[in-house]
Amino acid sequence: MSDLLERLRGRGWRLTAQRRVVAEVLDGDHVHYTADEVHARASERLPEISRATVYNTLGELVLLGEVLEVSTDGRAKRYDPNAHHDHHHLVCSQCGTIRDVHIESDPMSALPEPERFGFEVSEVSVTFRGTCPNCARA
Amino acid sequence: MSDLLERLRGRGWRLTAQRRVVAEVLDGDHVHYTADEVHARASERLPEISRATVYNTLGELVLLGEVLEVSTDGRAKRYDPNAHHDHHHLVCSQCGTIRDVHIESDPMSALPEPERFGFEVSEVSVTFRGTCPNCARA
DNA sequence: TCTTGACTTAGACATTGTCCAATGTAGGAT
DNA sequence: ATCCTACATTGGACAATGTCTAAGTCAAGA
What we know:
2 copies of one chain form a homodimer.
Chain A: H1 4-10, H2 17-26, E1 33-34, H3 35-45, H4 51-63, E2 68-70, E3 78-80, E4 88-92, E5 98-101, E6 120-131, H5 133-137
Parallel strand pairs in A: 4-6
Antiparallel strand pairs in A: 1-3, 2-3, 4-5
Helix pairs in contact in A: 2-3, 3-4
Chain A binds a DNA duplex (30 and 30 nucleotides) through α4.
C-alpha cells in the first residue's frame, strides 16, 4: 500500500492531505473498517476532515480497483485494501469482524453454463460465517 | 411454501391476517423482495398493514429458518423463501435482481483448517456477480 | 505567482431499519 | 358463545448509513 499514492498520482489523482490520511488509515494488515471507522481514524490525524470526503475518497479507491467494498451483513459496508490478492472472507456472525482467507478451488468454475441464465458472470465471492474465538469465549 | 402457515402454527405462531399476507407475498418462484417491496405488495391485499409489522414478520421468518436474508450490495436486504434448498446467488450488478443457482462442488470443504483462524465455521455462501440479459441489452 | 478546475466542507436530505407506548385481537379457558 | 390476556399490530419518532449540493479552498501546471 506504500506506493499507492504514487500509483494514484500517476493516474491523475490530485494529492490532498485528506486523501493521504484516508489511504494511510487503510494501510495495514487485515484491516476492514467501515466508512465511519475510517472517518474516525482519519479525524485523529486531520481533525477537520469531513464525512463526505471520506465517502468520496473510498468510492474513488473502489472505482480505481485499489480497495474492495465488502458488504456482509446489511449493516455498514467495509473496505478491504487487500484488493490485489485473490481472497475471500470469513465473518464473525456476532461481532462482524472479517478475516481474509484463501481457498483451494476456483469457485467460478463451479457454476455450470445452464445455471448462468444468460448472465455475463464476471465475479464471484465466497463468504464463510461463524463465530470467532473471541466471541466463542464470551 | 403452501404449508408454511401450518408449520408455523405448529410452532406456536399466532396466525394473524398480517402474517398471512406477508407469507403469501413471499410465496412464489425466485422471489427476492426487499422489505419495502414486501410491504408494498402486502399493502395491496391488506392496506392498513404497517411497515413495522412487515419487518417484524420477516425477522421472525428468518429466525425460524423459513426464509433466508440476503444482503448482496449494502442496499436493502432481500428475503429468499427458498430456505430449504441448498443454493447460492447470482446477482446483477446493475439492477440488483437475484437468481438462485446451484453449484457443483461443496465450497465449505475448500477452506483448509489453517485458514479458519480458530473460528467455528457454520455457513458458507457463494455470490456470483455479473450483468443480467436485461441490463446487457440496454 | 497566478489561475483554474478539481477537491473539500457542512449540513440538508434520502433510504433502510429499529424501537416504543398505545391499541387491537387470536385462541385458550370458562 | 363470551371473556381474558398475552401476544401482535400500529404509527410515528428515532437511529444508522449513505448521497447530494452550493459555496469556499487549494494543488499543481503555466
